[in-house]
Amino acid sequence: MTIRAFVAVLLPEAVRDRIHRTAAGLRARAASVAWVRADNLHLTLRFLGEVEPTALGAINGALAQAAGTVAPFPVTLGGLGGFPGPRAPRVVWVGVTEGGGGLVALHAGVEAALGAVGVTPEGRAYHPHVTLGRARGGRSGPDVGGPRDEGWGGLGPLRVEAIHLMRSELARGGARYSTLGEHRFRDPAAPP
User: Fold this and answer.
1) Assigned domain for 71 exists
2) Catalytic residues, which ones?
3) Is the pLDDT higher at 142 or at 3?
4) Mean pLDDT, to the nearest integer, of 154-159?
5) Which of 17, 46, 54, 154 is the most exposed place for a label (fewest CB within 10 A)?
6) What is the pLDDT at residue 171?
7) How far is the CA of 117 from the CAs of 53, 59, 62, 187, in angstroms?
8) pLDDT tens for residues 94-139?
9) For residues 6 and 107, is the Cβ–Cβ distance under 8 A?
10) How far is 87 from 53, CA to CA, in rounded Å?
11) Is residue 189 part of a domain?
12) Is 190 within the bounds of a domain?
């Protein structure tokens, strides 16, 4: 049996709670969206899809290699947006206002390391974000980015220090995530 997996930067509880509280008004006006629970909010680096359990060792090894080349760096979350755009989005998200370049570089390193163990590259540009919700059943989410969606700045400075290989199990009430591997970044004080 395969495992549904992804690579993520996990958010501190205080940041997750701040995002969830800020999104209360948005959730109230968009019942057609499946909203992500506060404890599941994260920055996705790479969705892997269905993975054979026998591949997890190689994937964790690749992620450890990628993490070992990176020093911790700061990121600030803020701003509200949607895919494919802010009007009638299919995905509603919180963006990255500072530190996005570090996340893009981290994503590139993860892609290269995963490619070396046979994981097919994603083939699209990486846009760092925290998914808040996805529209259900072919519907659209609420328009975002207008005057009523201001106040999404400064949702969380955080220090990115690790990447995680995560398992996603679909269940009633939303997905359940569990950690399959944690890979800490190199200590910037340690000699190269």
Assistant:
1) yes
2) 42, 129
3) 3
4) 86
5) 54
6) 84
7) 14, 7, 7, 25
8) 999 999 999 999 999 999 999 999 999 988 899 999 999 988 876 7
9) no
10) 39
11) no
12) no
- Give 45's pLDDT tier (boundaries 50, 70, 90): very high
Within 12-170, where are the H helices? Answer: 13-22, 24-28, 56-67, 100-116
CATH of the domain at 66: 3.90.1140.10
Coil, strand or helix: which one is 64? helix
In terms of C-beta density within 10 A (0-12 exposed, 13-18 middle, 19 or more buried), how is residue 120 classed? exposed
The boundaries of the domain holding residue 52 are 3-184
Q: Using CA atoms in the order 116, 117, 118, 120, what is the torsion angle rounded to 10 degrees?
A: -70
Strands in 17-155 per DSSP E: 33-35, 42-51, 73-83, 91-98, 130-135
Nearest CA to 67 out of 126, 112, 127, 121 is that of 112
- Region 27-44 average pLDDT: 90
| Cα three-residue angle 147-91-9, rounded to 5 degrees | 105
Please give the average per-residue pLDDT across 155-181, as a whole number: 92
d(C-alpha 90, C-alpha 83), whole Å: 6
Domain-located, residue 191: no
Band (pLDDT 50/70/90 cuts) for residue 150 is low
Distance separating alpha carbons of residues 43 and 104, to the nearest angstrom: 12
Q: How many domains does the chain have?
A: 1
Given a cut of 80, whether residue 77 has pLDDT beyond it is yes
Quick one: which of 148, 69, 174 has its CA closest to 116? Answer: 69
